[in-house]
Write a structure and sequence with these properties.
The complex is a heterodimer. Chain A is of the alpha/beta class. In chain A, 39% of the residues lie in helices and 16% in strands. By secondary structure, chain B is an alpha+beta fold. Classes of the chains: A alpha/beta, B alpha+beta.
Chain lengths: 339, 399
């Protein structure tokens, strides 16, 4: 009896004092596991979706593959965890995933209150509206009184409220937790309007029964800078995540792509030499090998390739580069220099 | 326990040792255990707080006063996006209580009907009731909810092609069931008052009738009288006042119907699913309760010349209720907790609004989930306290 109580007390002391979770050293645990744990959406074509063979594809997925390739020289060294909008931050906070790459809007409160650090903006987006063509609506300002389908726990839900209030319009929110449920409800005619990021609308429209019967209204009612995020408190991992993104954008700017990256190690251009690891110890400084960016670009391609492959004009989504073009081409994608 | 000495002679040692006194030992261990549990709870909370602070995650309950910023589809109390998270919490809570209360009422009525039907002498009635019970209680509730929502209610026509019932005053479409709203005019207060008076009078008469029957044995048609007071009196007043209510019929304007009250399909799906599923269990409980009353009771009542209906009402049901109430309480608790499946069909209940949207917008999952769990615990304890009180009322009184 006494023994049992003593051991229980010892256990309690151990629990109470010893359970402070160390938040640093994500890289070490990733290398130990042999894979990056990446949180993605439950299925948004072009961003994170499984293809016919069951493999994850998309812009958000490719970011995680680039990260894995930079660490392991293997774009397959990723475990994807599909997450709903409501689950995503908790999964990152609790350490279930190492990086969240799930078309997530960078906002101040998320950056400060949630213990996250946003890595960069992989896709500049804005919130839009999709309606059935038969409603003969041409502007979002004609939507007063409409039932609006929206996913809960998103910035979309808040922007929607602000937009309708600001324009003195009524609406009837129909809110679901899962993306599939929102899609199904809109498809079944439960609501007149579907609202989310315009890239998301382009993707969702393709999944409807009759995509041609639906149109996306011209208004964009918000800024939605979408990007990956990591846990706060591990500067090294934050740096790796950030510079993998910059490397992908720099590569496009410097004309380095998945096909020529091996040859580029011989390049004369010092910017390229630093990027692909022929010069300097940039990789070692963030805890990787010096050819970290080369590996990422070799396996996944530069930012432009990733964009064109997943969401660009040649894909069913047909999204123009627009804001997501390099700053040299009139967009706002601008990478900090590797030097 | 018999260690204490009967003889308190000072020359003899009263106790061998404090350590071996079972009473003292018991108290010591109880106190130790209590301290240990307290320590675990306190250190657990401190640890969680420290870890949240380390991870740079906001904590505390201050967020409850902040502006919510999102809208909710069904609100029983005034709520706008400018209201606080606390208000959003109450909207969710009331929606949960609303669907649970109506669900409990529907499930009870339907459950009693089906339960009695399973004992019917009529072959068809008996078999239909059996099929109902066996089908509904063996299909997971979540599937039933999705069935009602996606397979039944979603396939209704769009607003422009609404099904029109009762001369187009009631409309059914994939946005819900739209019924006319009766807007009160001057004098409506008197009608409301007459309802209250009717109910009050019915209670007084029922008490008086029971006392008289106990004293003199004379029966009084209490039920008919009560029905007359509760329904008849307000109706008479309503017509005397010249119906001080104007109907507001739904009209198609823009996207949807304006005016009238709308029962949203999310609510209807949840209510249908919860009531039909729980009614199947209640039916079995009712059947078991009635079968638990021995046939001798019926025969004894008949031999005293009591009629079958009266026998059922005064002999069988009071005894059956004793068996029925405790498991019925469990079903009520189940229904309340199952209402959290609302999230699957988009009904804005507590889980969907508070531990869904609010948790995500504030990022304070620990606080939000704790509050939600406490609320379900309190709701369940309240329900079960009420049912225990009711149970003690109908329990066997030994004389």
């Amino acid at each position: 009896m006494t023994k049992i109580i003593l051991s229980a007390a010892a256990g309690a002391v151990a629990l109470g004092l010893g359970a402070q979770v160390a938040s640093a050293q994500t890289l070490e645990s990733v290398q130990e596991n042999g894979y990056v744990q990446c949180g993605v959406s439950t299925g948004l074509a072009g961003f994170s979706n499984t293809d016919d063979a069951g493999d994850w594809t998309g812009l958000d997925v490719d970011y995680c593959r680039a990260l894995a390739a930079a660490i392991f020289d293997d774009p397959e060294a990723v475990r994807f965890t599909p997450l709903s909008a409501v689950e995503r931050f908790t999964a990152l906070q609790s350490g279930e995933i190492d990086v969240l790459s799930r078309n997530t809007t960078w906002t101040m409160s998320r950056d400060t209150d949630l213990g996250l650090n946003f890595v960069g903006v992989t896709f500049y987006d804005g919130q839009g509206f999709m309606v059935p063509k038969e409603l003969e609506v041409t502007s979002a300002l004609q939507l007063s009184g409409a039932s609006v389908c929206v996913q809960s726990g998103t910035t979309t839900e808040l922007n929607l409220t602000d937009y309708f209030n600001a324009n003195n319009m009524d609406y009837n929110p129909v809110v679901f937790e899962g993306l599939e449920e929102v899609n199904a409800a809109y498809n079944a005619g439960r609501c007149d309007v579907y609202t989310t990021d315009s890239s998301g609308l382009a993707s969702i429209r393709l999944q409807l029964d009759n995509p041609d019967d639906h149109m996306i209204l011209p208004e964009l009612i918000s800024k939605e800078p979408l990007g990956p995020s990591v846990r706060q408190g591990d500067e090294q991992w934050f740096d790796i995540a950030k510079w993998v993104y910059y490397a992908l954008v720099s590569a496009e700017e410097l004309g380095v792509n998945s096909e020529n990256v091996e040859e580029m190690t011989e390049s004369e251009n010092p910017d390229i030499r630093r990027l692909v690891g022929s010069e300097g110890t940039f990789g070692e400084d963030i805890g990787l090998e010096n050819d970290w960016a080369l590996k990422a670009i070799k396996h996944v391609g530069n930012y432009g390739e990733i964009f064109e492959r997943n969401v660009g004009p040649e894909t069913p989504l047909q999204i123009e580069r627009g804001l997501n073009a390099l700053y040299t081409d009139g967009g706002v994608q601008y990478a900090m220099p590797v030097r | 326990m018999a260690v204490t000495t009967l003889d308190s002679d000072a020359s003899q040692p009263a106790r061998a040792s404090l350590l071996y006194d079972p009473v003292i030992r018991g108290i010591v261990f109880q106190v130790l255990l209590a301290l240990l549990i307290l320590y675990l709870v306190v250190s657990g909370i401190a640890n969680a707080a420290a870890n949240l602070a380390n991870a740079g995650i906001a904590s505390g309950f201050g967020f409850l006063g902040e502006r919510a910023g999102f809208d909710i589809g069904q609100t029983l109390i005034p709520y706008t996006s400018d209201s606080s998270y606390q208000r959003a919490f109450f909207v969710g809570l009331l929606n949960t209580i609303f669907v649970a209360a109506i669900g409990i009422a529907c499930a009870t009525v339907l459950g009693f009907i089906v339960g009695i039907a399973r004992l019917s002498k009529n072959f068809l009635v008996r078999k239909v009731a059996s099929v109902y019970v066996e089908t509904l209680r063996n299909i997971p509730l979540l599937l039933q909810l999705l069935f009602w929502y996606k397979a039944v209610l979603s396939t209704l026509p769009a607003p422009r092609g609404s099904l029109e019932l009762f001369n187009a005053s009631v409309l059914l479409n994939n946005r819900g069931l739209i019924i006319p709203q009766w807007l009160p005019e001057a004098g409506a207060g008197i009608v409301y008052a007459s309802i209250a008076i009717g109910i009050g009078a019915a209670i007084v008469i029922a008490r008086w009738a029971k006392r008289r029957q106990m004293a003199t044995g004379q029966a009084f048609p209490t039920i008919r009288m009560a029905l007359g007071l509760v329904i008849g009196l307000p109706l008479v007043v309503l017509f005397l006042m010249g119906t001080p209510f104007t109907p507001q019929y739904p009209e198609l304007k823009g996207f949807n119907f304006v005016g009238g009250s709308t029962l949203r399909p999310e609510f209807m799906a949840l209510l249908l699913g919860l009531s039909l599923y729980t009614a199947a269990f209640i039916a079995e409980i009712v059947r078991a309760g009635i079968l638990a009353v021995s046939k001798g009771q019926t025969e004894a009542a008949y031999s005293l010349g009591i009629r079958p209906n009266t026998t059922m009402r005064l002999v069988i049901i009071p005894q059956a209720l004793r068996v029925i109430i405790p498991p019925l309480t469990s079903q009520y608790l189940n229904l309340t907790k199952n209402s959290s499946l609302a999230i699957a069909v988009g009904y804005p209940d507590l889980v969907s609004v508070f531990s869904g949207t609010v948790a995500n917008q504030t990022g304070q999952a620990v606080e939000v989930i704790s509050i939600t769990m406490l609320v379900y615990l309190s709701l369940s304890l309240l329900t079960s306290a009420f049912m225990n009180w009711f149970n003690s009322r109908v329990a066997l009184v030994e004389r």
